[in-house]
Design brief:
The protein is about 45% helix and about 15% strand. The protein is an alpha/beta fold. This is Broad specificity phosphatase PhoE. InterPro entries: His_Pase_superF_clade-1 (IPR013078), His_PPase_superfam (IPR029033), Mito_Ser/Thr_phosphatase (IPR051021).
Length: about 220
């Protein structure tokens, strides 16, 4: 039986004009994960990623740690939802930059509210697919993995939205649970599904085996 390893990208540039860029710490997180896997002899038969810059940069860091030259299959259905479009759909007035703990929490409260409304079909954020279309894209990737890669190890590099959606698809969670899972996924965290021809089964969720040492305690981030 194979394993699908779903990895959320390393720390990006939250609060900056362009979020879609790994920070220096995000790069180190990715490289550390690859080095952790290399020390354990882990190899991947197939690599899937979204097309966002932070996905490509995270895979490049993992590959550097693994000492491999990856040839990924890039899939737009593994891209993150547009958080700004979601928030704007329920709060069209300009918001201050979330650069304090209070503004940070307010940002994510709005985002959770917007996600719930999007999933319920009560808002249609500009430039975004509907929730059934978004979830259907993730479901199609999971079906591809199940049907084509049973018995193999597959690496999938994406974002919190698609990964939590994948967990929700496998476990059949309610929308509010999927949102809660999304908010908890840490940067460079690993979620594992076992792969058989009949089904995918959750093995682990949101783990950081590469950051267990005391010297990496301050490498753990959420955004």
């Amino acid at each position: 039986m194979g394993t699908l390893y779903l990895v959320r990208h390393g720390q990006a540039s939250f609060g900056a004009h362009d979020y879609d860029q790994l920070s220096a710490l995000g790069q180190r997180q990715a490289e550390r994960l690859g080095a952790h896997w290399r020390a354990r002899g882990l190899q991947f038969d197939t690599i899937l990623t979204g097309t966002l810059r932070r996905h490509r940069q995270t895979l490049a860091g993992i590959a550097a740690g693994l000492q491999i030259a990856p040839q990924p299959i890039e899939l737009p259905s593994l891209n993150e939802y547009d958080s700004q479009a979601l928030i704007h759909a329920i709060h069209p007035e300009p918001l201050p930059r979330p650069d304090t703990p209070q503004l940070y929490r307010a940002h994510f409260r709005l985002l959770c509210d917007a996600l719930a409304q999007w999933m319920a079909g009560t808002i249609s954020p500009a430039g975004m697919p509907s929730w059934p279309e978004f979830a259907g894209g993730v479901r199609a990737v999971l079906e591809q993995v199940r049907s084509q890669h049973a018995g193999k190890n597959v690496l999938l590099v994406s974002s919190g939205g698609p990964i939590s959606t994948a967990v929700g698809e496998v476990l059949g969670t309610a929308p509010e649970v999927t949102i809660a899972l999304n908010m908890r996924i840490r940067n460079s965290a690993v979620t594992e599904f076992s792969i058989s021809r009949k089904r995918l089964m959750l093995q682990t969720f949101n783990t950081l085996p590469h950051l267990h040492e005391v010297e990496h305690a301050d490498w753990i981030t959420f955004a």
